[in-house]
């Protein structure tokens, strides 16, 4: 899963609070919940069972009645993104980074509860993959308002990645996405006031 839901998962696992939005920045508490699903069978099962409320499916996106957006991260979706990036004349390095993010195993096992209490296993994305996919979307797919939100989410995920992900960002990714390098170098999560206490 990704979006605000993934940020909450990273926060719990790392025991480090996500940064509080400054005035004019995205308000994390008000963001729509976006869940990324890698398994097409799970995606289709959620669509058919409607455990999260009314469903509207549009290709690899599924909008649910409770303000939840599911997005399928399948190999078909990766191929579609690749074609779109090629049409937009993206650099080969950007396409390779995007495909790397699609292939990284899920980062955190989590369970989402449906409106009737039905559990659905929807792992949170590795925060490195989340940050890269969000920034690719900022560069090539998102509208103006969505870009601000996604960039803020990408920076938050990048800033916490060292506490959650098994490996650091690759050097090439840091050079390709200065937003990620800036979030890591900024050390915004090192302040003792951000640490959760037992």
Report the helical percentage: 40-55%
Mean pLDDT across every amino acid position: 77
Number of strands: 6
Rg on CA atoms, Å? 16 Å
Q: Give the CA-based shape.
A: globular
Distance between the termini: 26 Å
Structural class by helix and strand composition: alpha+beta
* Uncertain segments: 20-32, 188-198
Topology order in helix (H) and strand (E) letters: HEHEEEHHEEHHHH
Structural summary, described in words:
- The protein has 198 residues and is an alpha+beta fold.
- Helices cover 49% and strands 12% of the residues.
- The protein has helices at 3-14, 40-49, 75-87, 92-103, 127-140, 144-164, 171-176, 178-186, and strands at residues 33-37, 55-58, 61-64, 68-72, 111-113, 119-121.
- The protein has a four-stranded mixed sheet with strand order 1-4-3-2. The protein has a two-stranded antiparallel ribbon with strand order 5-6.
- Strand 5 and strand 6 form a beta hairpin.
- The protein is globular and about 45 Å long.
Summarize the structure.
The protein has helices spanning 3-14, 40-49, 75-87, 92-103, 127-140, 144-164, 171-176, 178-186; strands spanning 33-37, 55-58, 61-64, 68-72, 111-113, 119-121.
SSE blueprint:
Blueprint: H1 3-14, E1 33-37, H2 40-49, E2 55-58, E3 61-64, E4 68-72, H3 75-87, H4 92-103, E5 111-113, E6 119-121, H5 127-140, H6 144-164, H7 171-176, H8 178-186
Parallel strand pairs: 1-4
Antiparallel strand pairs: 2-3, 3-4, 5-6
Helix pairs in contact: 1-6, 3-4, 4-5, 5-6, 6-8
Task: List the main descriptive attributes of the protein structure presented here.
single chain, 198 residues, alpha+beta, four-stranded mixed beta sheet, two-stranded antiparallel sheet, 8 helices, disordered C terminus
């Amino acid at each position: 899963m990704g979006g605000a839901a993934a940020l909450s998962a990273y926060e719990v696992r790392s025991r480090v609070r996500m940064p509080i939005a400054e005035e004019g920045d995205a308000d994390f508490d008000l963001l729509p919940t976006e869940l990324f699903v890698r398994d097409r069978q799970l995606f289709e099962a959620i669509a058919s069972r409607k455990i999260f409320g009314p469903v509207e499916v549009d290709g690899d996106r599924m909008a649910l009645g409770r303000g939840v957006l599911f997005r399928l991260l399948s190999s078909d979706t990766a191929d579609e993104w690749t074609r779109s990036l090629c049409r937009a004349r993206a650099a080969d390095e950007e396409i390779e980074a995007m495909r790397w993010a699609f292939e990284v195993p899920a980062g955190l096992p989590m369970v989402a509860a449906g409106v009737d209490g039905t559990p659905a296993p929807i792992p949170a994305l590795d925060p490195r993959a989340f940050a890269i996919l969000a920034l690719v979307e900022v560069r090539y797919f998102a509208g103006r308002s969505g870009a601000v939100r996604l960039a803020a989410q990408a920076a938050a995920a990048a800033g916490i990645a060292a506490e959650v992900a098994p490996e650091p960002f690759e050097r090439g990714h840091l050079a390709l996405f200065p937003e990620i390098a800036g979030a890591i170098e900024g050390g915004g999560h090192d302040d003792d006031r951000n640490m959760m206490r037992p």
